[in-house]
Amino acid sequence: MNISYEKDWRAIVPTLCWSWITAFILAIPKLIDIYTTDYYLDNQAGVVVYKHGLINKRQENIDLYRIKNISSRENIFSGGYIYVTYTDRTVKTLPYIRNANEVSIRLRNIANTKRVEQGVKPIEILK
Asked: Where would you find the membrane-spanning parts of this chain (predicted)?
């Protein structure tokens, strides 16, 4: 008498469920970080306000007239980032921005306008 044994692939379902649950639990800090990040432009004051943090809430004001350069990076997996370089060569990263390339262009135009309004001399490029 020949008995045939077949594999029962249904046993993988609990493992997959635990994998998804574990991945979700590990993603919670990033979800909270994204949820608590907020940006807005105060055009009258000439600043971009960057608020972030859940327990330690922080607010950073980015003066538009002090901006030397604005660049961006978009990634299909990690989203968009804008990098603001100040005239003193410090760099500030603004994470979690949708359409970061378009936003950086608009932000650069506004920053240039604010520089002219503030009477800041144009940045000289050294050769």
From this structure: 12-32
What global pTM score does this model have?
0.77
Whether 63 maps to a domain, the answer reads yes
Tens digit of each residue's pLDDT (9 = 90 or more) over 59-83: 999 999 899 899 999 988 888 999 9
- Short-list 86, 94, 4, CA closest to 52: 94
CATH number, domain at 98?
Answer: 2.30.29.30
